[in-house]
Give the backbone structure.
Amino acid sequence: MERKTSIDQTISSPGTVSINVQGAFIVDEHLSRPATPSDDGAQHDTDIRLPNHRAVVSHVALDIGGSLAKLVYFSHEPNSEDRGGRLNFLKFETDRIDQCLQFVKGLQDEYRTQNGSRARNMSIMATGGGAYKFYEDMKTMLGVEVLREDEMDCLIMGLDFFITEIPREVFTYSDDDPMHFQSPRANIYPYLLVNIGSGVSMIKVSGQQKFERIGGTSLGGGTLWGLLSLLTGARTFDDMLRMAEVGDNGAVDMLVGDIYGADYSRIGLKGTTIASSFGKVFKMKRQGESQAEDHGGLSRERREDDEDDTEQSIPAFKKEDISRSLLYAVSNNIGQIAYLQSEKHNLEHIYFGGSFIRGHRQTIQTLAYAINFWSKGEKKAYFLRHEGYLGSVGAFLKRQPKNWGRRNSFEEDPVVRPTILHRRE
């Protein structure tokens, strides 16, 4: 009877259900589901365990962007005496949105089986451009209420949650300490959010629900994905990142050392600093063409007859080197613009989010280096383990009471306050 009452309350007033984050922790990666795409098209990321949450949660959240659809939902622990559960994080390619919706339909069916016929009222919280583009598809296929939430609101709410509530989520990067975790804290404002998806948005956050978009750039993840698909033939973004990991950008980029023969110490530039992205390509290509033209005194007619031999004489650039060079070019550009915006608006803390990063070390290293270099160490770049899920987590939280679980920010309303459960130190 007690469980039935809880379900009734959840369905009739889903906004009254608080998520108990006491004792929350990120599940070790080797205990989580595989990160590679499964047969249903889903790519699973690390879960967050909520060992003390026991109430029914009657909604799931989707952030549908131009490239990826990110899903967050709560599930209780199966076959366990522990009555807690976990937040699950999955992503799908937006081009395969039907697979994503089919997965959500499976969650809906499972929820109905576990909780009774009234579970058909389970709702979908949706944000991102796809919340509008695929709105009718979601309503038709799922047959449930779809609540659309503002994208920027959700991004900020999701980031605030991660910063203030989840241990070992936010970290800084350095060569000596690649993942230095920051403890959850309450005093987080002001800060700059650099959200890198298909494009890039830069948002100044000065308080709860107080923010403004102060800039951005169209050169983001979509740029990298598009150009590398043309230049390398790679079919997925993860394939491109894997190629970049083993590439040598020095075979493509013109470095400071190529110009000076060493470091340019007077202005603080190492010999390995990129002076010109893809700067070697034209020069090496022209040298190869000249050598082919001069070899054996070839006439124009003979060069046309021997076109294949000439092409073989022109240096070939490895797709791995191209991938690394372009990754650095896009990341460096974002990092420098982020620094300039933080300088203009006097913001010390810079958080990088969005599915472009994906925990990729070279991307994180490049962004962190850019902020540290241009600010002379005065500003810090922060990263998250769930950086691609800020919007979907924010949409998920939209179904909660205002300020639930946030340290030092509880409402003074005596009716609301007792319902809020928060994590103890």
